[in-house]
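User: Predict the full complex structure for these chains.
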Amino acid sequence: MSTILLMSTMDLRDDLSFGSHEVRTWLDAGDPAEVEYIVVWGAFALDYDTLPKLKAIFSLGAGVDHLGDLSGVPDGVAVVRFVDPLLTEEMTSYVILNVLRFHREDPWYRDRQAAGEWEQIIPPAAGDVRIGVAGAGELGSAAAKALFDLGYDVAVWSRSRRSSEGMQSFIGRGALPDFLGRTKILVNLLPLTDETRGIWCAETFTMLEDGAYVINAGRGASLVEADLLACLESGRVAGAALDVFEQEPLPEGHAFWTHPRVFVTPHAASLSNPVSIGDHVMRNIVRIERGAGPIGLVDRERGY
Amino acid sequence: MSTILLMSTMDLRDDLSFGSHEVRTWLDAGDPAEVEYIVVWGAFALDYDTLPKLKAIFSLGAGVDHLGDLSGVPDGVAVVRFVDPLLTEEMTSYVILNVLRFHREDPWYRDRQAAGEWEQIIPPAAGDVRIGVAGAGELGSAAAKALFDLGYDVAVWSRSRRSSEGMQSFIGRGALPDFLGRTKILVNLLPLTDETRGIWCAETFTMLEDGAYVINAGRGASLVEADLLACLESGRVAGAALDVFEQEPLPEGHAFWTHPRVFVTPHAASLSNPVSIGDHVMRNIVRIERGAGPIGLVDRERGY
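Assistant: Here is the predicted structure of the two-chain assembly.
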């Protein structure tokens, strides 16, 4: 039995189950010298000198950028992303829904229905629709594979990882123009790092096929919202499905709320499931106690 | 080189390519005694005594019910459905789009966006969503398999065919209550026969899980529209995606046009691709000329 400190602005003790481990909250932390594990959502700052037994910090999300600066975390303390098959499955279904929405011209059909018009358009075959998935982590790889299985022409862009199974790989910043030049539907699932902040902007949108679509389920700060709005205005980008934003919740009066070609969801593409989180943390505690590395270990140098 | 008679209300000669075969149209048929193949969309009546060389009648669609009464077609003349991987792929993508639309509560999120509200709901895991696919032909089997691959709990109901790969099979009319009792999202891909006309009605909708969804991409006449509207009103059915209707085009002023929980498409789930049709007909002519059975041969006894 280990001692877990649960740090979040809401008291999540009733939602998250960590079996027989002792769970303390932020406001009732007791003696920090006894804390072995921290489970956290949101930026935090700790005096690690008071936490001599700390072994790991678990993020409640798939990313860790929301945790803020991790440079002070001692080397012996593992930082662990939330990795979960259900989280991955949910993200994949979000991506497929929005790819199909654009590929099958569903917004156009919704407009035709509203106008009472019976009119058909033949969509291109999936094999003629070029999808570009940016990001080759758990989420990006799973989404790319599922789209590939549905018959789409899928390419993956990442910093270093090669994709498999008949999908084209584009590696590194230098390959970005070629990747975007063949992309009709861009799916962003990149982690937020210094390199990916603001990566989707006027310059890169212009590299896309004309009338392209943008799906962002990675991080809001990777996309320059004003540039996307301008490209939607010019027709360079034909539509966007956005789950994440520069500021969340998306502010009242933001142009995205009422834009007819923007499909907003409230950071809900893939919601951490309380049961899965408990399982993930407990399984990883078993691994760490046995001396094995946790699943979802973050490379702090790389930032994800 | 064979002589093909192309029968449709529109002149499709510029759209459909049949290679070096001689193609005649309805209005310029020449000597019927020379016609070996007929390609047709819509009901028709022929004096088969004047067509001694006729070998096959090709439907331009996946179904043949639109051809009307086929009882007069001589035994030696094959009736052939349109079977095409692209047609199947398109139907599968229509089904997935609409399953995801309902599973992920997309209509609810569209309403939230329109209201400027940032609110999340956690959808059930795909494995907890019970999909019932009615029809185990090319289209039904492909859709069921794709949904199964996405993690859904899929069951298939058909007259006689058992489905594979971990999906539950329900066979025959007697199994319909059990099939519907475990179905949250019903997908109709049945052919239209005497047995399936009006099969989706008040009686069968009431067998579904409460708050179920109905997706009809089979035939409009299999669904009793007034009953569906009543079940949408009572909440028994929570939403419907309809591609086919009792009367097509869907008449002006029909309640479906403006119903907030009905998603109308104009018989466009899977549009026959002109290139594919030409290939399908030409390949089957080669098979028939060689004495092989055509792909898509209709069992006239069974009706599909």
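The interface with chain B takes residues 86, 89-90, 92-94, 96-97, 100-101, 103-104, 106, 109-110, 112-113, 116, 118-123, 125-126, 146, 149-151, 248-250, 252, 257-258, 263-268, 271, 273 of chain A (CB under 8 Å).
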